[in-house]
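User: Assemble these into one structure.

Assistant: Restating your components, then the assembled model:
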Amino acid sequence: MYVAVKGGEAAIDHSVRLVAQARRGDATVPELTLEQIKQQLRLSVDRVMTEGSVYDPELAALAIKQAAGDLIEAIFLLRAFRATLPRLGYTRPVDTAEMRLQRRISAIFKDLPGGQLLGPTCDYTQRLLDFALAEEGTGSDPVFEEQKTGADSRFPLVLDLLDREGLIERQAPAEDDPAPADLTREPLAFPADRATRLQNLARGDEGFLLAMGYSTQRGYAHSHPFAGEIRYGSVEVELVPEELGFPVVIGEIELTECQMVNQFAGSKSEPPQFTRGYGLAFGHCERKAMAISLVDRALRAGELGERVESPAQMQEFVLSHSDSLEASGFVQHLKLPHYVDFQAELELVRKMR
Amino acid sequence: MRDPHYTFAYLDERTKRMIRRALLKAVAIPGYQVPFGSREMPLPYGWGTGGIQVTAAILGPQDVLKVIDQGADDTVNAVNIRRFFERTAGVATTERTRDATLIQTRHRIPETPLHERQIIVYQVPAPEPLHRLEPREAETRRLHGLAEYGLLHVKLYEDIARYGHVCTSYDYPVLVNGRYVMAPSPIPKFDNPKLHMNPALQLFGAGREKRIYAVPPYTSVQSLAFEDHPFEVQRWSRPCALCGATDSFLDEVVTDDRGGRMFVCSDTDYCGGRRERRAAA
């Protein structure tokens, strides 16, 4: 005999305890500390901060620990926390030309003012499993100190060099440049301007953007990209407190910036010149910054008079599906009970047969 | 008991005010989808975040809250949402439709008729009734503006031409106040007639899609149909196996692996109340 299922509450409580148990694993193994996560899983922390839209390595590490390493779940935890934070003010735009660099490369000039600075990268290593890392206490060379370039050496933005020749589109903000919309406060509306699109992409899922960017290299919206410059380092964040009226440095954040240079054949009003795609992410997120810049350029198709025919060029397609919280939530909501709709469909299918 | 670490009903007061403004606009233009700055909630998008935000924005300490999913108070997600508000707002909760001042629901309208002092909040996964026919939002917004709903009528016509009847069994589109076509959320079309001239205020929240809409009390809500093919609801050939009701939406329950089935009310409060009264008699 069917009895209406009671006990949802007890089942939920038990499942919460099982999650905690599974997260901790074998209790004889030492527990992870947030400091360990921050130091040794820094790229996970950077991704969670970028897509979680909060620059706070401590909270990101906590989210990663709580989510047992599931980064999309960690991003969700951080975003839900962020939604409750008050908005104290807006900082001044950061100046990436003044970045204290750890890495700076350009794929379009062999040498350039400031030079190429490889910094920490796996790019030119052989991806062989390093069995030495399996042994504790052998994994690092803590005394290594890189020869630093002179304090007065400058690293101008590579694209500014092209700009001087007029070969690349100018992107100085207009005098009446409006303040950008805030996607965390206002819903996305179409058509979305570029500032709004870039915000959406910065918060977007890295895997999704990687695939969309990749598609533009395989014939779906080809834009002939060159990695004009990728830089990673620290920038100062400034705020102008109302009562003071002058900027005050409130801290420093790490950023990865990618400026893509793309071909453009010109139009009736514009001579042929290079165009730009731009990507920015918290911490060291190079793959993500590059993917954003490819997608950003593809999404400018309409503005540049190109035909919009591939998914990566379609605003609604890209921007409505980039957010991992929205995607993960809605895909997984299929786990929720659908007895009633399924019953309605059963009745319908029986009737249609 | 209310957890003092959170604002009453979780959301900060500015966010609540923003949502209330959207709600006022929604009530003023019945059936029109109002965009709002949906927040990331501590529950996943697609799991009732729109309904939760609407409830959080209008909930007061004196309210009595009922939360149902598939008509039942004890389904796991309904339990989770009810506990969320017990924890963050400390309000009284009930399973009795009649006793609730605020009902948050997913996929059903209670069988017990609602009254003027009640508000029902629907969780909405997909607020745009035209979405399956036209995915571009810029375009659907234009179609709503022009009240151009030919696409939907053609879809209904094609169903009838091909199968002899309309092949939509839930989230069946409705025309509100003679102007906007609206998605009633995935309630079975069995519930559609309850939307019409309902004495309660009906609010709809879509968190992931960032839209709010409303049907004010005593508003006309017509399910789309043709004169020669009027709207019809599901009917069962047998009563509820537990309470004997013949007027409620029945869930089919598989009882064994030899084709055994039983049909019981999806509305657990309605079914339980009927059984109590029968036992008392």
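The first strand of chain A starts at residue 100 and ends at 105.
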